[in-house]
Amino acid sequence: MKWEIHIRALTFVAIDFRLVLCNFISNFTTMKYSLKVNYLCPVCRAYLRIWNNIIFIVKSEPRNLHAILLLNPELGNYDLIHHSSIEFAEGEMLDFFCPVCRADLTAVELHRNLVRIIMIDENSKEFDVYFSKVCGEHSTFLIHEEDIVENYGEDSSTYVNYFMSRLKKRKPDQEI
Ligand SMILES: [Zn+2]
User: Fold this and answer.
1) CA–CA separation, 173 vs 49, rounded Å?
2) Which chain residues have CB less than 5 Å from ligand 1, an ion?
């Protein structure tokens, strides 16, 4: 009887250990995979991603705010990390700058509400990533060779038509 209890206890321990190990491996695999995805400044090509953050300097001119903002490298994930003393208002327009060369990352060639950075995926394929500078506006585009590969966020429809017309202008020889 005593042994039976011990064996049952051991079985529970073994199951728990296996669950913990699975969780650990799955998290580790995900993180390892996504760490191969890099983000670069389009001007100086410095790496903007450190571990699980893309690092920017942001400014809000109307209230003279100047701060560091970390974005999640997973496209479509709109978690923001910033100092607890700072609050961003819904609808507030931020200007994004490269923390290395201080270039303004506004995608002036496409839309003044969008930021452009470069993404290099795990196969070394290069993309342009555009995302909204407006706080709370969830709109991200993954572009490869002038085509929208993917768009993310419930507000991306705001820019799709605009995007398509601008991209079409850049390649007048190709008809859709
Ligand atoms: Zn730069």
Assistant:
1) 36
2) 41, 43-44, 46, 98, 100-101, 103
Q: How far is the CA of 156 from the centre of ligand 1 (A)?
A: 26
Tell me how far the alpha carbon of residue 91 lies from the centroid of ligand 1, in angstroms.
Answer: 26
Q: Where are the domains of the chain?
A: 1-34, 38-170
Across the chain, which distance is largest between two alpha carbons, in Å? Answer: 82
Inter-residue contact 130 to 149 (CB < 8 Å)? no
| Alpha-carbon span 130 to 126, nearest angstrom | 13
The number of CA neighbours under 13 Å toward the Cβ of 154 is 3
Compute the mean pLDDT over every residue in the chain, rounded to the nearest whole number.
82
pLDDT, tens only, 110-132: 899 999 999 999 999 999 999 99
Task: Report CA(167)–ligand 1 centroid distance (Å).
Answer: 24
Long-range contacts of 67-74 (CB under 8 A, 24+ apart): 68/99, 69/94, 69/96, 73/34, 73/37, 73/39, 73/49, 74/34
pLDDT at 23 exceeding the cut of 80: no
